[in-house]
Amino acid sequence: MKQLLTTLELFLKSSDFDRGVRLGISIVIPFGVLYLLGYVQYAPAFAVGSFLNAPGDVPGSAKRKVNAILISIGLTMLITLIIQFSKPILPLLLVVLGLISFLVSIISVYGFRASLVSLSGLLAMVIAFAVNKETPLEIIIQVGLMGLGGLWYLLVSFVFRKLAPKKDQNQLLSDALSLVGNYLKLRAKLLTKKSTRDERFEQILNLQNQINDKHETLREIIYSERKRSGRSRYEEKQLLIFLSTVQIFELIEATRLDYKTLDKVFGEKKKYLKAAKKLNKIMGKRLILLSELLIQKDKIPNDDKLTEALSKAESSITEYINTIKLPEAREGALLLKNLYDYQEQLIQEIKAIRQAMENVKEASKLSLKRQDSSKFLTLQEYRLNVLTQNFSFKSKVFRHSLRFAIAIVFAYCIGYFFDIQNTYWILLTIVVIMRPSYGLTKDRSKDRVIGTLIGAAIAIGIVLVTQNEIIYGVLAVVSLVLAFSLLQRNYKSAAAFITISIIFVYSFINPDAFEVIQYRVIDTIIGSAIAVVANYLILPTWEADNLKDVLLKALETNKTYLLATQKFYADAQGEKLSYNVARKEAFLAIANLNAAFQRLTQDPKSKQKQFQLIYKIVTLNQTMISAVASIGNFIKNHKTTPASKEFNTLIASISKSLEASYDSIDNNNAKEKPSIEEEDHSPEKLLHKYQELSDSRDKNLQKGNTELDEATLHHLQEAFLIANHMKWLQSLSKSLYKATESYRKSLVEDSQ
């Protein structure tokens, strides 16, 4: 019960619910004012204008949000005007319907915010069919009132932003902390549960993608705010929490172990990993708790549980050494020590977040130059050539836009020739569920139908209990607020509330609520069926055919990250910024690859060409970036010795393999096959350095010198980690090349 109340409290305090309330206020107040003034007939147009322009009001910089809503207002007014004047002439209307559907849909090439502006335009196109205006004056008044409604919504949004300027930012930080906490708990399970590692891979990809999306939006907001308003105590606090969240995520990635080595070293002795596993779970729960407290503003508990769990993890290393005995225990002890060091760093970051949330003045002294922060922003291009470059059948967005236009025109023709009462409900269903990906369209279609049936059942129950129009009006507004609040969180629930809202709105027009419910359900099913079938049959886009560019980008950024780590090893201070930027780009590229693979898993089995091979390439890329991150993190947090000749030789070899993998996939850059199979003794030489240090330590032990100074321990750790990770990376890069070669051959065979 307590958890349920906490969930409800977090939802009511969330920025999603806040946006739902904004929409509710922007609709209810004009209705009330115009009713009192005796002009209630103008209220629906005003309300439609507010509703249509709400989608662009998503987290981001204030400038981009205002620009998106203003563009949305102009677009919805223009589309409504065109549709209204075209409706009397069927051939013209069908042409206009197809063109608007295509041109507005293709706007989404400019990114997520542009896709929401596109959605507003498409919704305006559909709602225009529900508006019956006879004369040009009536049409112009309708369009003008819609524009005023949009501006009114922008004003309401501006007021809400002034009242709670950091609500979106806090919500994003809270969501990011919660996701990272869940990710840490998931990674804890991988330490000891060998049988479930592959099964959890899809969960890992999903969480990584969500975390990266939150981080990208936060970068835009936080760095843009610092540029606009300078540094304030609150801004410093927000930046510290964000940077610590990013650091925690990247530390988790850096602790991706060579599980084969882990299983080999510990075998039946997995009990010595349980303390580290438990510590990960406790840290994950603490991050989730901090995410909740960031919204709730309640008192933050102390760090005693974290400190106690960390102490037990350290004790487990001592217990392992005392039980197994040196030198046999050295390899396992070093693995445990490296893991312990990462967990100690994680706790420091968690404590930094706690201090920032408690407004401890000494929590941070941050210095981030504006010109440096801009390098971490992923800027969206808005030039015309971005659009023109996508006017090709090779473009997923182009194919989707054309497919969408055909589906819309077909659906309207069905409604027109079969005299369906509310054809625009079918069109509305297609607009909100049809996506470029078949799998996502299918999932949204299923959720839409189920949500509609649930909403219809609830509406029927209410209708049977009461026929009070005041109750219907209240429920319509409340349902719309909840639907808009849940749109990004739970589409099925949102669909249910949308259905309830529409049914009660239409009950004012048609007193027979049961008839409204019946048509709503039937039209939703028809629209969903058209969307799914169109995605499957009309210019279908299967993810297996569109992986090339995403794979190339991942390989390119992995290579850049590897070389940046090499420079970082040579000059940790001078190359820090370059290393961090390369790391960020590599993580984003791998996130895009993960997202593409997830979409592949949603396609029909018959369309998942070379699934196992693609799965192998994705996992190898994932593992490589984590191994590189592990080396980089060790360099950043330890005083290291100069990079050896063997290290640089291996970097060159691994880089060569990555380049070969890139060239293998990039048919336009075919080169002579590189000789990556040549014998290379560099890994053995690196391991020899570790062996020398290990032998020296053994001699000291034989002499009775059991004390180990910190410098020697760090040198042992460095030699062990670098040697094993470089050997691991070389093996991974060669496996990756072989996989990409097989993938290339399969593509050639498919094209013949």
Automatic annotation (TrEMBL):
Localization recorded for this chain is: Cell membrane
Q: Which domain of life is it from?
A: Bacteria
Does this UniProt record's set of keywords contain Ubl conjugation? Answer: no
The answer to whether keyword 4Fe-4S applies is: no
**One Pfam family name from the record?**
FUSC-like
User: Which parts pass through the membrane?
Assistant: 20-40, 66-83, 89-109, 139-160, 401-418, 424-441, 448-464, 470-487, 494-511, 517-538
Cite the entry's keywords alphabetically. Cell membrane, Membrane, Transmembrane, Transmembrane helix
Residue intervals of the Integral membrane bound transporter domain:
411-533
Membrane topology per the entry is:
Multi-pass membrane protein
Q: Where is the Integral membrane protein YccS N-terminal domain positioned along the sequence?
A: 70-341
**Family assignment from sequence similarity:** Belongs to the YccS/YhfK family.
Name the chain's protein. Answer: Membrane protein YccC
